[in-house]
Design goal:
With about 280 residues, the protein is an alpha/beta fold. About 45% of the residues lie in helices and about 15% in strands. The longest helix has 15 residues, at about 205-220.
Length: about 280
């Protein structure tokens, strides 16, 4: 396939990209295969889809998967209640005898029926059961689905670029894994984190960036932390430090570390972090 250079993903204004991730994104686009991204929460899986949409100038459609979601909800909804009300009160411009007027596209349906190529982000697929996962990939393979109420097959006008994320809380089926390309987004090391921070805070001082990074990685290593702070918490923590007019970077090498509640969101984690900070 001759994949045009202008359709290749090379990063976005606020997304730091390594060569391996850029390659698997572009291979997935060229092969028209879903890209499955795994990694702990906060490593940038969801933001990657936003970055691809920005870079390629494509609309982004997001399907947030829920544990009780049925595949049909992601494809389309038949609005029986509105049709019943229209039939009862007769004050609508819709033709109640035409069921198609009461069919609304779900997120996958929207991506299929879009007049332009889209990025379809299927976020946190590991929340869904195995049947949902496998049936969804059948639809994405075939690029079509049936609307049984009107006996109509909806075929994709444009095949979307499909990004699927998983927090690895539940194993995905072998058939599912076999039909995707895969990339694990590791937690950034300090060198990569410096690059990420400087994208968000171009004028950040060297004292703040070095002291904040050293403390952040030390706090992530506290034992028995249930939810380790991720990149988004770190960025918000630096934002909080910058917002406080009385804060001085040297405070990060003192006994107390400010705004721990920005990094740790669970009570037990917060208490452990406070105890660790006070033992220094």
């Amino acid at each position: 396939m001759d994949y045009a250079k202008e359709n290749r993903f090379s990063g976005a204004t606020r997304y730091i990209l390594d060569d391996e991730l850029a390659s698997i994104v572009n291979i997935s686009i060229a092969l028209e295969m879903p890209l499955l991204l795994k990694g702990e929460p906060g490593t940038g899986k969801t933001m990657l889809a936003h970055a691809i949409a920005e870079s390629l100038n494509m609309p982004l459609i997001v399907l947030n998967v829920k544990s009780n979601m049925k595949l049909v909800d992601a494809l389309y909804q038949y609005d029986t209640l509105t049709r019943l009300n229209d039939s009862r009160f007769g004050d609508s411009s819709r033709d109640v005898s035409n069921i198609e007027e009461y069919i609304k596209m779900g997120k996958i349906g929207q991506a299929f029926t879009s007049g332009v190529k889209t990025i379809l982000l299927i976020d946190e697929i590991d929340k869904a059961d195995t049947d949902f996962q496998d049936d969804m990939l059948d639809v994405l393979d075939q690029m079509e689905f049936d609307i049984i109420e009107i006996d109509k097959t909806m075929k994709a006008i444009n095949r979307p670029v499909i990004i699927i994320t998983s927090n690895a809380k539940k194993d995905l089926s072998d058939p599912f894994l076999g039909r995707c390309n895969f990339h694990h987004i590791a937690f950034p090391d300090p060198k990569m984190m410096r690059k990420i921070v400087r994208v968000h805070f171009p004028n950040i001082g060297s004292d703040l960036i070095e002291n904040s990074i050293s403390n952040f990685y030390r706090l992530r290593e506290i034992e028995h932390i249930e939810k380790k702070p991720a990149t988004r918490e770190f960025i918000n923590w630096i934002r909080a430090l910058n917002t406080d007019p009385d804060f001085q970077p040297k405070e990060l090498i003192a006994e107390e570390i400010p705004f721990l509640g920005v990094l740790f969101k669970k009570s037990q984690d917060y208490e452990r972090a406070m105890n660790e900070a006070n033992r220094r």
